[in-house]
Description:
The complex is a heterodimer. Chain A is mostly beta strands. Chain A has strands spanning 3-4, 6-13, 18-23, 32-40, 47-51, 59-65, 68-74, 88-96, 105-113, 118-126, 135-139, 150-156. Chain A has an 8-stranded antiparallel beta sheet, with no helix packed on it. Chain A has a 3-stranded antiparallel beta sheet with strand order 3-11-5, with no helix packed on it. Chain A starts with a strand and ends with a strand. By secondary structure, chain B is mostly beta strands. Helix content of chain B is 0%, strand content 49%. Chain B has no helices and 13 strands. Chain B is globular. The chains are: A mainly beta, B mainly beta. Chains A and B meet through strand 1, strand 2, strand 3, strand 6 and strand 7 of A and strand 1, strand 2, strand 4, strand 6 and strand 9 of B.
Amino acid sequence: xxxxxxxxxxxxxxxxxxxxxxxxxxxxxxxxxxxxxxxxxxxxxxxxxxxxxxxxxxxxxxxxxxxxxxxxxxxxxxxxxxxxxxxxxxxxxxxxxxxxxxxxxxxxxxxxxxxxxxxxxxxxxxxxxxxxxxxxxxxxxxxxxxxxxxxxxxxxxx
Amino acid sequence: xxxxxxxxxxxxxxxxxxxxxxxxxxxxxxxxxxxxxxxxxxxxxxxxxxxxxxxxxxxxxxxxxxxxxxxxxxxxxxxxxxxxxxxxxxxxxxxxxxxxxxxxxxxxxxxxxxxxxxxxxxxxxxxxxxxxxxxxxxxxxxxxxxxxxxxxxxxxxxxxxxxxxxxxxxxxxxxxxxxxxxxxxxxxxxxxxx
Lengths: 158, 194
């Protein structure tokens, strides 16, 4: 019998403006992880992701947006590096082979940015062989996610 | 303002007695995963006729790397062994600056994704996710959409069409110039209900 592929692991709904959100203790049971974010920011900022708390310069990404593309490297995955969100947005992060220890971790990120009506597709890489044990959504500029923003983490088998 | 919201152990808004019991009903089901442990020329999913009437669509997800010289390669797919000029493909990609577009008409395979090759940084693979719509139906041409990229090259959106109304019974994934897929390459096939 075929197995349902995706399991909901955890959901965090912000009760007040919050600078960062971390899912830790992620079990090594799922091949891929999916992080869905839907909400808003309280000031101009870009949502970014760190894996396993790594703040080293171990991240790289290429953004494809409406009529524009850019490349980047840095201390976090920054899927909309040339735009800032000032209102509502949604993002779907796919972290592939999150539990693998023989390859770097690769992501595909889709972002809908309602102010300015931008859409983004970004592929990225965390240059580490470590299995993913935590994911932290933060911002590039110390600004917060608004109350009511929802972060949902799923695990997908393969 | 709260500085940090931390879930020190995973828990959902709904409590489950075990992780195994925590599944939320999903319309996506794992059919098979192929993980390359020694180089192979292609990845074949076959005997898919049994899924007619079970799933409407297929989804392919994985990471790819080949032994082709250079930093990148290109991966394609054939359906039901059809090597005739029955596929059209289009692409949009960004590598910094203005995005570029292109098209391939009447080819013998569907273009899927850019792929990392032997000259790419060690540990780097190309992530991709492909949706094959109406894959098991006998009334429509088959439409394929892939999101993919490699961070030393470009991010791609590729679309393709197989000009056949036959239900897909086999998917053969290979590299456009015949290179082998190397250890660590992984492709998972999922069925998606309507």
